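Running co-folding for glutamine.
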Amino acid sequence: MSQTVADLVRHAGVVLKAAGIEDAPREARSLVALALETQADRISVMARDAAPAAAMARLEALLERRTVARVPLTHLTGWRDFYRHRFEVSSAVLDPRSDTETLVEAALEQPFDHVLDLGTGSGCILLSLLAARPGAAGVGTDISPEALAVADRNARRLNLADRVMLLHSDWYEGVEGRFDLIVSNPPYIAVDEMAGLAPELSHEPRIALTDESDGLEAYRRLVPGAPAHLRPGGRLLVEIGHTQAADVTRLFETAGFREVAVMRDLEGRDRVVGGLMPAGPP
Ligand code: GLN
């Protein structure tokens, strides 16, 4: 008997659930849509249609990559929805997490014209900010040329290329001018935590996840370096691991930042530290 699209979704759901995939029903629809070369929101309409044999074969291959190799769904589909837009992602960039939307929202609470994003990866933070602020321009740096290529395609797709400059750089190296906002989601996982992470994370660039040390090395460079790149009254906002608020707050205060504040993500965990560079000498 021929299988329907609904049968495929059920089958995929069972396989994904048995493999311990958390959101098996949603991922099942996404993978069936990918196998059918359609969009996930079309699946309900197509539920009773007969599934072509080629799609069934494609689905089996996708299920194997997802459950055995533990390739993240986003790498199979090639995109991730983040904040208000869809971004191309690949194994060259950190997969945008919804936690990072806390950083975007905090940044958009104040005006800015010129923003610097250190370690931009897919560009999801910088491009979300520029899309929300039509008058603003920005610079995104990354040490990875492969990541910058992804960010560049995202900038073009979102029609933001004329307001973005992407720079191959190690943090502030080669960054010119002063900004009224600096943002970053640096690698902050301590090296001894890496082994305990979900297997999916092994498909993301290690350099985007860990500093190979205690998880604070990036802040030790980003935070003291910020005043030389900020206009008076400019702000620095960084994403943090949820146990790092006290250490990162101290780095901000030592660097002369005022109004240092910790913001929480939707799960109520410390996620962002922000501070202001005073307009005059402190
Ligand atoms: N939030 C990511 C995670 O816990 C880590 C990202 C980062 O190091 N910037 O998987």
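Result summary
Residues 53-67 form the longest helix (15 residues).
The beta strands are 79-82, 85-88, 114-118, 137-142, 164-168, 179-184, 230-239, 258-264, 270-276.
Job closed.
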